[in-house]
């Protein structure tokens, strides 16, 4: 078959900035420019990432520019900003604040300057809208902690920001989520099962919010192409945000670009087992292991997720 011979001509990325971009359908290698040509008519282009991977962020910037050359009516949509910080995003784009003010006002991620600055700056230079697409962090956190009923405690204005049917779901996504959780937690008792279910509801709130924000952007900017950046779990296999987009608006065309790790000891690209992850794939080097000492890893994870004393939700049990 064509895809086998084509994919075997790929060479493993040599640096953490490099990618090998292919069409998942037939394994043919693509340049960024050719990818932009193939995606020119898509309503929504979703570019998945492993957060903090240099190659993913470089490629996102390159794709953003390549798509703009063919469709200058572009809107950038980002998981990395929450909808309640949209005013801070707009203030920066309109020149009312400086970058450090923007980072502080928008609660930008710690890796903003290294990873997302090029995307925002391109949008700012070209006068393109940017959508803060994610659900408010405090609401997501409290749904994850106390359950979906937390939304009933919100004010009318807070609830109005969120989508109708905020926990819309697909069975395949739940199966994928459970498999990921099982891989890191093992068998769950009843209490753990409840916590996992609440965590999943929080995940759905993020995905439904991003889907609805993307569709709102399409309505607000007729004829524009939406470029959405997100963690790959939200989009690969056309699940998560992508599946909910299709449920909410079946006629919207969505293209998914997903990262695949090329293992250090593999000579050939891991294409066959990853083909279903997206319409287009990009192979990247694995990031270095964070920890080799399990005890240090456990302590670091505990510190990372330790709840600050003031971090409460109504109905929280301690």
From TrEMBL:
Signal peptide (UniProt feature, chain positions): none
Alphabetical list of CDD domains matching this protein: ChanN-like
Presence of keyword Lipoprotein: yes
Segments of this protein annotated with the region Disordered: 294-318
Keyword Lipoprotein: yes
Residue ranges occupied by any Haem-binding uptake Tiki superfamily ChaN domain in the UniProt entry: 37-244
Keywords noted in UniProt: Lipoprotein
Matches recorded under Pfam families: Cofac_haem_bdg (PF04187)
UniProt name for this protein: ChaN family lipoprotein
Organism: Marinobacter aromaticivorans
